[in-house]
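Annotated sample (chain length 281).
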Amino acid sequence: PDYLIGRDILIYEINSPQDQEKIIELSREVPVLVRTRDWHIIPLENLVSRSDNILVEASDSDSALLALGVLEKGVRGIILEGNDPIWVGKMVGRLKSTTDKIPLVPFVVEEVRPLGLGHRVCLDTCNVLENGQGILVGNSSKGLFLVHAETIPGPYASPRPFRVNAGAVHSYALCPMQKTGYLMELCSGAEVLICDYEGKSMTAIVGRSKIEKRPLIKITASCQEASYSVILQNAETIRLVAPGGDPISVAELIKGDQVLGTIMGQGRHFGHKVDEWILEV
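Output written by the structure step:
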C-alpha cells in the first residue's frame, strides 16, 4: 500500500478491504489520514466504528460535513484542501458552526397577549429531537426565544419529536454560522440550528415546512433592560423552555415567569449580521 509516515500523522490509501484492517492497527499508535478511491462512505463508516483516530481530506463543506457525520460521531478531524485563505476561513467557520455553543440567558416575561388568526410555521426536521431542545425564534433578530420541540406526550396530542411549531411566518430563526432565516423561507432541504437548554447546538435539515392559519399569541419578555418578543401559535402544545430545561406551555405563561433565549446584538441584512442602526418593534 501507498503510505507516508510524517511527524504527526500517517497517510494511507484504501485499495482493498484488507487495507481497513491495517489502518485500524496503525491508528492505535498514530492518527491516520485516510484516502479512498471509488468507495468513500462505507469504508469510513467501517473505520470510524472501530477507531477514534481517523482523519480525512476535504475540498468543500459538503464532503467535510459528511465525514463529520459518519456514524453520528464522525471522524476525528478534517484536513482542508485549498490555497485561498478566505475560502479556508469560511470553511472553518462553517464547520465550527455545527457545534457552536449558544449563550442562553433568562428572559423575564412581561406580557402574554392573545392575538387573532395568522399563519404559523411548523418545521418538521430530519432529526429526532429530545426534551430540552428546540429552535431559537423571535420577532427581532436581536433577541430570540428557545421554542421547544413537540416531544411532550399529552392526552389530546401525540408527540412529534421531529417537529418544532416555531412561530409566525415573519419570524427570524437561528441557522448555522450565526445567520438567521425567515420561517416562511425555511423549506425542505434548508438547514436550521437546534439548540438545547444548556446552549449546545447542532445543525438539522428541514424535511418539511407546514404553514397553516391558527390563533396566535404574543409573548414579550425582558433581559438586560431591553424587551424582546415572539409570536407563536396559541395552543397548549406550544412551549418555551424554562431555565433548567423544563418546557413551559404558552397557555400557562404568566408575567414574571422566566424563559430561555439568546441576545444576538446586531441587526440583519439577508440573514447576515450588519453593524448599522436598525429598529425592529
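Annotation: Confidence is low (pLDDT under 50) at residues 1-5, 268-272.
Annotation: The longest helix spans residues 85-96.
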